[in-house]
Amino acid sequence: NMQIENPNLMLEGMPNYRTGVDGLRVSNTSKGGISFASSTTQNGIHMITVVLGVDAIDGDPYARFVATSSLMNYVVRTY
User: Fold this and answer.
1) What is the C-alpha to C-alpha distance for residues 70 and 57, in angstroms, rounded to an integer?
2) Which of 24, 12, 20, 7 is nearest to 61 (CA)?
3) Where are the alpha helices (DSSP H) in the chain?
4) Rounded distance, CA 21 to CA 24, Å?
5) pLDDT tens digits, residue range 38-76?
6) Which of 74, 54, 69, 58 is nearest to 18 (CA)?
7) What is the pTM of this model?
8) What's the Rg (C-alpha) of the chain?
């Protein structure tokens, strides 16, 4: 069996799973910092979210996914 690892922790079966998230890009670069771009459709709204420079907040290595989920919640509530 070959195991494939995926750093997108918002996909099904991952610690920060959120229904509808279908991926995009997880990165850590010197210019962009710890970043995450995601794609989802929620309540009929297709959105692409990008968070840049999200350092581990209070030692939380999942901060970029928590920030993304908060951004998605804001969009769904507001629009």
Assistant:
1) 14
2) 7
3) 63-78
4) 9
5) 999 999 999 999 998 887 667 788 899 999 999 999 999
6) 69
7) 0.85
8) 13
